[in-house]
């Protein structure tokens, strides 16, 4: 989950422009992709979908910080813009990897990428909107012109999004989607082109967005428009730009990005706070099982959104008992990519209060940074050859704004800097414990057992034990000939390092990984964690998961994308 932005003072305007005009990348995140300059297309084909996707990603990349700043509903956790961007990024990546030649192939790949990468409430709804578009554009038998086809697709998208939300609320991005669809159908009835339909949808969405503060009390009190709806306006502006070649004019939306006023009585504040956890996972299950799952999760919490189909679903819910939400998924099918986020600390930070306990984690990859942030940690990115120093770690401890901090240095190279940062933080009155992790996978294991509600000492002991019980390996490519503990390697060889020492030398990443897994699982194990680097091919994860399952039936496997700056492959065995 993205860190909450500092609240502006009452009356201070926050100007949000959509499709967006903020220059430069968000904080230290990856830069926004180069925005293409489309030529007028006015037709629906695979190239139009690719252009729409690229423009939407660029628009959300520019707008994400402003959208985060006005995020007050359903949870004021300042991450709606980031969630929309990451969802669109996953969709665009899948579309690019598919190399689709036809319209049907392109929209299906795009929607599938959004489904598997959907983040948060808003990203999950966006994924279902794209699926609705794909359900029409991907199955059209022909005979309809681009304008009518697009209008039907936008109408289906709005319909399916409403159906995916257990309890739809007006004044949200659902309202904006419905207004866009209605305007698109009016333009289509007037014999409009695809570009005309897209422009009408964009204008209808903008008008609906401006009306959201009057429809939802939380927005009205905060003086902002709906954050998710604002992101959808950016996506629809990108659609019009892709079909017309015209760039939407920047338009300011003003609002006071301040916390919603808190009631005087603590019990009322607790009622307003809502469930404490966000639970998200992908689920492989049939439709009857998913229908039963909806009923069960609806009784556990709120903000329930279940999107997808054809055996694969993305489940999102806010609950007080995350274990029960995950168990419900296990009863329905096979849940994986499970993410559990604690809201309490984010709410307290948004009000400027110091939280009781936080985790600061050094991670060697942008994907890992996002993963740990979703789990509630404050992250510090370690780039190859540029380990963060004590100042960077001390800054992260201070940004965590907690009375107690558990520091995960990530590797032996950061151990001294972590110790120095801890000493300086203790001088500031912060209680700090450094867990001696030697690999990012040990940090993930420690973070998985972190209990912010338990005692500090017990939490540190549990996290230390989890890290210590995790054997770790890293696969790297040799840069030159060298003597190793496993023999002489040549430039280009794949090196399998187990617990820091070279144990396997191979020529192929997958085969070397299998040899490493054999050695690590030879002494037993219950869970294998795979972290794939940015250049690792997608089939590698499936191959290694199958290899583990075939040879070790009782061992579970979980896979993550490490992102930029991550090693080709990290392996953990617990």
Structural class: alpha+beta
How far the N terminus sits from the C terminus, by CA atoms, comes to 25 Å
Strand order of the largest sheet: 15-14-11-18-16-17
Uncertain runs are 1-40, 253-272
Strand content: 15-25%
Would you identify the CATH H-level superfamily of the largest domain?
DhaL domain
Question: Outline of this structure?
Answer:
With 574 residues, the protein is an alpha+beta fold.
Question: Mind explaining what this structure looks like?
Answer:
The chain is an alpha+beta fold. The chain has four domains: 14-258, Serine Threonine Protein Phosphatase 5, Tetratricopeptide repeat; 272-345, 2-Layer Sandwich (Alpha-Beta Plaits), CATH 3.30.70; 354-468, Phosphotransferase system, mannose-type IIA component (Rossmann fold), CATH 3.40.50.510; 471-573, Hypothetical Protein Tm841, Chain: A,domain 3, CATH 3.30.1180. It is 48% helix and 19% strand. The chain contains 20 helices and 18 strands. It has helices spanning 46-69, 80-98, 103-117, 120-137, 146-164, 173-189, 194-211, 217-222, 227-244, 266-273, 287-298, 322-332, 344-350, 366-374, 390-400, 415-427, 440-448, 456-468, 509-521, 538-551, and strands at residues 14-18, 251-255, 277-284, 301-309, 312-319, 334-342, 355-363, 378-381, 402-408, 431-434, 471-477, 482-484, 487-489, 494-498, 501-506, 527-532, 556-561, 569-573. A six-stranded mixed sheet has the order 15-14-11-18-16-17, sandwiched between helices. It has a four-stranded antiparallel sheet with strand order 4-5-3-6, with helices on both faces. Strands 8-7-9-10 form a four-stranded parallel sheet, sandwiched between helices. α17 packs across α18 (456-468) and α19 (509-521) packs parallel to α20. The protein is globular and about 75 Å long.
